[in-house]
Amino acid sequence: MAAASAPITMKEALTLTSLGINPQFVTFTHVTMESDKYICVRETSPQNSIVIVDMNMPMQPLRRPITADSALMNPNSRILALKAQLAQTTQDHLQIFNIEMKAKVKSYQMPEQVVFWKWITPKLLGLVTQTSVYHWSIEGDTEPVKMFERTANLLNNQIINYRCDPSEKWLVLIGIAPGAPERPQLVKGNMQLFSVDQQRSQALEAHAAAFATFKVAGNENPSTLICFASKTMNAGQIISKLHVIELGAQPGKPGFTKKQADLFFPPDFADDFPVSMQISHKYSLIYAITKLGLLFVYDLETAAAVYRNRISPDPIFLTSEASSVGGFYAINRRGQVLLATVNEAAIVPFVSGQLNNLELAVNLAKRGNLPGAENLVVQRFQELFSQTKYKEAAELAAESPQGILRTPDTVAKFQSVPVQAGQTPPLLQYFGTLLTKGKLNAFESLELSRLVVNQNKKNLLENWLAEDKLECSEELGDLVKTVDNDLALKIYIKARATPKVVAAFAERREFDKILIYSKQVGYTPDYLFLLQTILRSDPQGAVNFALMMSQMEGGCPVDYNTITDLFLQRNLIREATAFLLDVLKPNLPEHGFLQTKVLEINLVTFPNVADAILANGMFSHYDRPRIAQLCEKAGLFMRALQVNPGNAPLVVGQLLDDECPEDFIKGLILSVRSLLPVEPLVEECEKRNRLRLLTQFLEHLVSEGSQDVHVHNALGKIIIDSNNNPEHFLTTNPYYDSRVVGKYCEKRDPTLAVVAYRRGQCDDELINVTNKNSLFKLQARYVVERMDSDLWENVLKPENEYRRQLIDQVVSTALPESKSPEQVSATVKAFMTADLPHELIELLEKIVLQNSAFSGNSNLQNLLILTAIRADKSRVMDYVNRLDNFDGPAVGEIAVEGELYEEAFAIFKKFNLNVQAVNVLLDNIQSIERAVEFAFRVEEDAVWSQVAKAQLREGLVSDAIESFIRADDVTQFLDVIRAAEDANVYHDLVRYLIMVRQKTKEPKVDSELIYAYAKIDRLAEIEDFILTPNVANLQTVGDRLYDEALYEAAKIIFTFISNWAKLASTLVKLRQFQGAVDAARKANSSKTWKEVCFACVDAEEFRLAQICGLNIIVQVDDLEEVSDYYQNRGCFDELISLMESGLGLERAHMGIFTELGILYARYRPEKLMEHIRLFSTRLNIPKLIRVCDEQQHWLELTYLYIQYDEFDNAATTIMNHSPEAWDHMQFKDVAVKVANVELYYKAVHFYLQEHPDLINDLLNVLATKVDHTRVVDIMRKAGNLHLVKPYMVAVQSNNVAAVNEALNEIYIEEEDYDRLRESVDMHDNFDQIGLAQKVEKHELLEMRRIAAYIYKKAGRWRQSVALSKKDNLYRDAMETCSQSGDRELSEELLVYFVDQGKKECFASCLFTCYDLIRPDIALELAWMNNMIDFAFPYLMQFIREYTGKVDELVKYKLEALQEVKSKENEEKELVAQQNMYAQLLPLALPAPPMPGMGGGFQPPPPMGMGMPPMPAYGMPPMGGY
After folding, report:
1. Residue 323 CA to chain centroid, in angstroms?
2. Among candidate residues 910, 905, 896, 898, the one with its CA nearest the CA of residue 931
3. What is the spatial distance between Cα 679 and Cα 671, in angstroms, rounded to a whole number?
4. How many CA atoms lie within 13 A of 811 on its CB side?
5. Partners of 233 in the β-ladder
6. Distance of alpha carbon 289 from alpha carbon 321, whole angstroms
7. CA gap 854, 858 in Å, rounded
8. Percent of the chain with pLDDT over 70
9. How far is it, in rounded angstroms, from Cα 1144 to Cα 1106?
10. Eight-class DSSP state of 400
11. Cβ neighbours for 376, distance < 8 A, ≥ 6 positions apart
12. Which of 34, 30, 36 is nearest to 14 (CA)?
């Protein structure tokens, strides 16, 4: 079945091995999956760990080093449960951890060993011990609670599952055990069902079980069901069943009827059994999964089979429900995590089409809302509707899949049904059903609401809306708005009909809600229109609404100016002012126009308001000249002056030029004070050298807290000029501009300029002024104190002509004066950056070697040595010897990098860094001898270890091993092992590995030790070693020994680890065949058996080979390989003996019988037929057919074709190889069964050529199969028609022309006129005229009579009569005329008899042709020829006939008159009755219609002359014809 049309789809969600999980841990005991969220894997090597796979991000597994016997992830959350057995006890320690919080939730020590556990709910763990079952909640501090004891049927069972129903009232425990003795491979399943309420258990036989819930019609409470699958032996028969049973039936309520169904296992899965069961609550399906990967799908309600297929080629050991998709996950031994889901597009068509279960298809579609049943549902709906079962139709429409019937057409259909008095209208029944089932769609909600609104039952709408039964829409809101605005608003909000919601809020004057709602739904209403609407009725409300708009995120949706204009257009000055004062509070430059506007409108209308605004000082960006003019017009002169102080500096400058008194100028300045712009004022005074004039003004500003830089610059210039302790001002004032003031000081006092520049860190200006004035000491101190790398780079660059003077001052003065390590460090770094190594050495020697505060500074010592390494290597050894506080390891490494190896060795040695020292000797000086000498001197393990590594690298393996032993170093054992193997020094390796084993327990070490023993042939040590505790990977060692032909040692290993397969291979190599057979028997592996078998065959140990072969040939896939191996070596007799022995095996299969047949065909053909006849039902006949065809065993080939129902090939083989294959009886049986019709005619030719005496027997068998015409043609062409005469006689009843003509020819030839007459009379399908012409001149009279008879049958009456007259067959002539119906021909024959004087014939002809001869002609001929006596009998007969006819006519006339009279009487009575009824009718009734108007009660008038009248209402008269 194509995957697209399969009802269940399978896909690989992930593969555990792709996450780095070893396949050996993909087992039931290592892998757990409690839900579709997590998989948990427990690893025990290379280290104990837990791997948690989140199915939402499976490629990012969480691996934690945790040791436990079992681990379970919580079904819902990241909570991990761990179980570990306490050492030397039977108790288990249980712990629960919250992974996200990294905290232990709780723990408990179980007094019994927990043999199985499982999360049965997200809050509850089920614990199963050998005797009991406990529940342990993760909440609180509760201990495990005992629920029940295990029943006897679960004794010695392996527990594989434990579950509870959703109510936790029913529990089920499932285990498996070995099968019955007569069939141990069929695992037995046992189940214990426990009722918590009744505290009772029931033991059942089942392999898998699951709980489900199902809602039975008529019961509002769901029923609890248990589904379980079993496979049992009963009286030697395997019975596989699925059961679905209700638990705890509800009294007085409809219950679930028990269901059961068969599980059909294919023959190849006879020993397979269910291992898991999952319930799809989404689709109400049961999934039963078997160990070998079969999936059974059943319907929960009916237990009807839906699907069966193999979903995994590998055994499945774990499943988990995938609740979100209605499927399940399954994990197989390969590590595949498979996801099974319902193919929603295919399952319903599959059930309806493939299974022809229409009812189940419809139910599935309704339950799962699935496509595919639309036509069925619609058809059923129409049937119910036509049967006036409106309630059932409504329920079907309500539950229709994908709502295919939830349409306006359905509503219209229910509306069209007339309402019966006293009954609920069908439309209301439909809506009522929909309400009980769930929520109505938009159209249904609108139609139902229309009915309710018309009936004024608003409360029903409110209830339905509160219960979320109606789908809200804008149309529904419009409908409800006619009766309730509040309810309509709720509907608009739910329907997201935003414009209608906004309009409703506006009508309710809830403007604040408009903004809130619009923001919530992301809607942008027409704010301008809303504002205009509000202005008309509520100006203050408009202000509030405008302010709310101004506070919206993203800014006001309407321009402030536009809003202001709206207010002003309605002369709402106060409202406009209130709005602007609120929105202009931030005093932003971009609001300058609006600030001007609000002042303008108030200066014109309400000057006092404008004055208050200006007094408040809240605006500073308005048009000051404009406002000043308006203030002047409004009489606010002081405001007019304050608003334009910008021209004061120019005024002061002009006054100074005019030599105005300073007191006046000072007074003017002080009157304006803080409103004056300081910078232009200072500039005007400074240009005129009159800064002192501003002293009082500037001090006043400073006292007011001014931090204006221009104020402080001016004040500083005044202090410098007055020499009023300028250093104090320059160092303490934080507000002046250092560059401006420093520039001012340069020509007056350069040292003051340095002070100003230092305060502002004006590097360039300070350097320039010190260079210009040779103040290098100040410059050096500044640069050292500044510690700025860019400044150092600037002063130390080669282009600086003053660099040398600066360096001298730094070395001699600035740095020795410094006590700051940071300054020293920065200076040294600057010298290094400037690439001045010699100057740096000079500097460092000054600091370090001379007695200074930094002499013992490790960093400087380091730097001195490092600089010498770089610039003057000859000084390094001297520095190393003189200095003691440098960083020996780091400096030593740098010395190595600088190739000063002896200095580096001295450094490492001085600091007792022996490992680094020996590394220098080994890696750089490359003297292993000095290194060994040094190692003997220091006798440190680490040193010896380094020496050993170097020796190992140089190939001195034995010396290296000796050094590693001295070092007691086991870390390099992998390299040592590799080198020792390459050098073949296994004796030394054994010593080393023995030492290593004392330090560490590594599988590699123990494994290599065994291998080394084997290489030096110390087999006894191997046996002793493996008997002692070790961690060697014996399997890997054994394989390696085997691969390297160390078979004796490998034999010891494989025997010890019971690896019988490899032991068998090893014994084969050692030619110990009997032992190999014994090992193969224990291994019981097909591969092993084959290896041993083939080896025994090669060694001609055929008895042992046969023992092995019998264990191989029972496997179908291996049989052909064994057979080919024997045949390729010419061991035909031995192979036949092996196959003959295999026939008696219990597991003998078709392949063995077939292969033996093939061998007989090739090498013992005399036994072939007997073998085929005995075992035809157990042979692979097509395969044996090919061999028999190749070997030309035609008789056997024919028999096989017959057994295989290949009758066409059987017939062909018989005919092509008849000397060997033909048997008449057999061929007849085959011939009737062939499908190719051409073989029928080939068989006719075959029998005609080889067995003509039996051809009629064959043809009689094929009579119903062949084309008789073709057979006759074949025989006619062969000239052997007489040969098949019996066949043609037998088939002539088919009235085939060719057969009739052939037989007629034979009858004419044989002059058998009786048979010819019979043939002509009974079979008319032939050339009649041709046959008549052929026999009309025959010498036999009877033949000629037959010709006349044929002409008569052919309608050639004259020819027949003429021929009869010619042979005086007058009776035949008269009968021919009578049958012809030809009056002329009859009268001509009558005349002929008169002419011939045959009076008797004349009389006979009159009676024979009575109906054809006219009376006048007959009487005329009789009278004229004196034959009246012979004509008289005819005349009497004629008169009697005509007299009878006249009597009949008279009788008919009388009856017709009587009938007319009777009808007249009936009409009169009818009129009388009508008149009587008319007198009784009330006056209100209309008069009966007049004739011709239609609809009356009168019969129609007569229909014409000679026609009987039609009865009333078109009904025939009673008793008439």
Report:
1. 13
2. 905
3. 18
4. 18
5. 238
6. 12
7. 9
8. 90
9. 14
10. -
11. 352, 358, 361, 362, 365
12. 36
Partners of 84 in the β-ladder? 93
d(CA 1352, CA 340): 83
Using an 8 Å Cβ cutoff, are 322 and 36 in contact? yes
What pLDDT band is residue 963 in, cutting at 50, 70 and 90?
A: confident
Q: Which of 4-8, 39-43, 358-362, 494-498 is modeled with the greatest confidence?
A: 39-43
CA 108 – CA 127 distance, rounded (Å): 12
Q: How far apart are CA 652 and CA 1480, in angstroms?
A: 135
CA dist 853 and 818 (Å) reads 9
Kindly give the pairing relationship between strand 124-129 and strand 132-137. Answer: antiparallel
Confidence of residue 69 (pLDDT cuts 50, 70, 90): very high
What is the pLDDT at residue 839?
67
Could you tell me the two tokens for 417?
């049904």
Helix, strand, coil share (%) of the chain residues, nearest 5: 60, 10, 30
Question: Residue 493's closest CA among 511, 476, 469, 509?
Answer: 476
Do residues 278 and 321 make contact, with C-beta atoms less than 8 angstroms apart?
Answer: yes
Nearest 5 degrees, angle CA 617-CA 623-CA 624?
65
pLDDT over 90 at 983, yes or no: no
Q: What is the pLDDT of residue 666?
A: 73
Tell me how far the alpha carbon of residue 1487 is from its chain's centroid. 81
Is residue 1364 within a helix (H) or strand (E), and if so which, with residue range?
helix 1357-1366
Tens-place pLDDT, residues 627-657: 777 876 776 645 554 585 666 677 677 777 7
CA–CA gap between residue 268 and residue 293 (Å, rounded): 12
- Please tell me the distance from the alpha carbon of residue 490 to that of residue 508, in angstroms, as a whole number: 13
The pLDDT tens digits of the residues spanning 667-699 come to: 667 655 666 677 787 877 877 777 787 777 777
What are the pLDDT digits (tens) for 380-416? 777 777 877 777 777 777 777 777 777 887 787 777 7
Q: Looking at the predicted structure, is the pLDDT value of residue 597 above 60?
A: yes
Which pLDDT value is given to residue 1519?
34
Map residue 1085 onto helix, strand or coil: coil
At residue 160, φ and ψ (nearest 5 deg) are -120, -10
> How high is the mean pLDDT of the chain?
82
Which bin fits 42, alpha (ψ -120 to 50), beta or left (φ > 0)?
Answer: beta
Note whether 1243 and 1262 are within 8 A (CB): yes
SS3 194: strand
List beta partners, residue 225: 212, 246
Integer Cα distance of 1241 and 1259 in angstroms? 10
C-alpha dist (Å) from residue 104 to 80, 95, 107, 137, 166: 9, 7, 8, 14, 28
- Residue in this structure with the two tokens 């003031």, named with its chain if needed: 741
> How confident is residue 1517, by pLDDT bands cut at 50, 70 and 90?
very low
Q: Give the highest mean pLDDT range of 15-19, 1343-1347, 1354-1358.
A: 15-19
Sorted by sequence, the CB contacts under 8 Å of residue 1490 that are 6+ apart come out as 1496
User: Are the C-beta atoms of 487 and 513 separated by less than 8 Å?
Assistant: no
Q: What angle do CA 200, 204, 206 make, to 5 degrees?
A: 135
Of the CA atoms within 13 Å of residue 432, those in its CB half-sphere come to: 9
Question: Over 90: is that where the pLDDT of 1031 sits?
Answer: no
Q: What is the DSSP string of 303-328?
A: --EEEEEE--SS-EEEEEEETTTTEE
Q: What does the pLDDT read at residue 11?
A: 93
Q: Please state the φ and ψ torsions of residue 1036, each to the nearest 5 degrees.
A: -65, -40
**Which of 352, 341, 356 is CA-nearest to residue 297?**
341
pLDDT value for 174: 96
What is the phi/psi pair of residue 658, to 5°?
-85, 5
Q: How many CB atoms lie within 10 A of CB 871?
A: 15
Question: What are the helix and strand counts (H, E) for the chain?
Answer: 76, 28
Specify the DSSP class assigned to residue 94: E
The predicted model scores a pTM of 0.42
